[in-house]
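quick q for whoever's on today - can somebody do inverse folding on this one?? i tried earlier but teh output was garbage lol. tokens:
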């Protein structure tokens, strides 16, 4: 039986820092998670309790959830339009270790949407620029930079060192490489893509099974093959609404936090679709395809040798 939580404290809003500490003291040193057991939070420092106070007072997050975020290692693929808000919000949320993979440098045309970079960063490697921005925002976050191109030769080693991957890459080859590698490495993946005025987001746990024993779907169950080269124009050709990448990237960060903390209903088997022109959000359900070459009944993809 769940024990009662102490009654809310009366706070003096004249000092926001004091108010935050008082709110935390109302529920600390204990919170009561779903199993009803008493949980202490000695691994969160006083500064962390104050920094993350708005998380900690959420019953769905609390001290245990914040501790999970602190212990998490998340790899973000790309420090561009999607990766920028993902990195910033995960750093602000207190994810303990953030890895970032990108082999590009900051250009002036990036700044319309890649908000982790500034004008003074033009010409600087994106991993360095992103790491500096994260350090300014939250020095308690450990940053691991990987200024390289993700390939079939290095993907498994990189991905294997993290708990979860967020893919904000801007090309189909990398998306398929990341999804295949996450399946082979048994790592959850939050993946998104944007077009000119539209975006999509889903979570993949294809290495796991649903409650009924059916395998969870893979990226190849949703998109069996990449489109033919040249059929989908690149961002530089078609253009993109900068704020849209912020919306989709923020949703990616929210899904990473939700997956890490463990609250609510995730996007496994569901594709969230955003139409920015109509301001419409829709969800498409998709399922395991027994014929898919990665996780089907007769898989043909057993390694990453097909990737450069």
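ok took a stab at it. sequence:
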């Amino acid at each position: 039986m769940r024990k009662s939580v102490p009654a809310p404290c009366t706070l003096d809003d004249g000092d926001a820092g004091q108010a935050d500490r008082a709110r935390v003291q109302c529920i600390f040193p204990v919170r009561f998670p779903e199993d009803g057991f008493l949980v202490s939070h000695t691994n969160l420092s006083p500064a962390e309790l104050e920094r993350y106070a708005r998380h900690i007072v959420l019953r769905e997050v609390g001290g245990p959830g914040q501790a999970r975020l602190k212990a998490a290692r998340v790899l973000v693929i790309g420090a561009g339009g999607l990766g920028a808000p993902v990195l910033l919000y995960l750093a602000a949320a207190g994810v303990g270790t953030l890895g970032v993979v990108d082999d590009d440098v900051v250009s002036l045309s990036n700044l319309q949407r890649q908000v982790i970079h500034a004008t003074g960063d033009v010409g600087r490697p994106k991993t360095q620029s992103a790491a500096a921005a994260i350090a300014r925002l939250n020095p308690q976050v450990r940053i691991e930079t990987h200024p390289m191109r993700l390939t079939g030769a290095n993907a498994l080693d990189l991905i294997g060192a993290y708990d979860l991957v967020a893919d904000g890459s801007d090309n189909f080859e990398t998306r398929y490489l990341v999804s295949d590698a996450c399946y082979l490495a048994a790592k959850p993946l939050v993946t998104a893509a944007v077009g000119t005025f539209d975006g999509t987001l889903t979570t993949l746990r294809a290495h796991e099974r649903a409650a009924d024993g059916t395998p969870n779907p893979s990226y190849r169950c949703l998109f069996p093959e990449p489109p033919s080269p040249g059929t989908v124009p690149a961002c530089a050709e078609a253009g993109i609404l900068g704020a849209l990448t912020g919306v989709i990237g923020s949703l990616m960060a929210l899904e990473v936090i939700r997956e890490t903390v463990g609250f609510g209903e995730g996007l496994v088997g569901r594709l969230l679709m955003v139409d920015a022109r109509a301001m419409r959000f829709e969800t498409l359900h998709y399922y395991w395809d027994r014929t898919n070459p990665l996780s089907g009944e007769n898989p043909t993809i057993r390694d990453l040798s097909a990737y450069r």
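fwiw The CA atoms of residues 3 and 231 lie 59 Å apart. also Confidence is low (pLDDT under 50) at residues 1-14, 24-42. so keep that in mind when u check it
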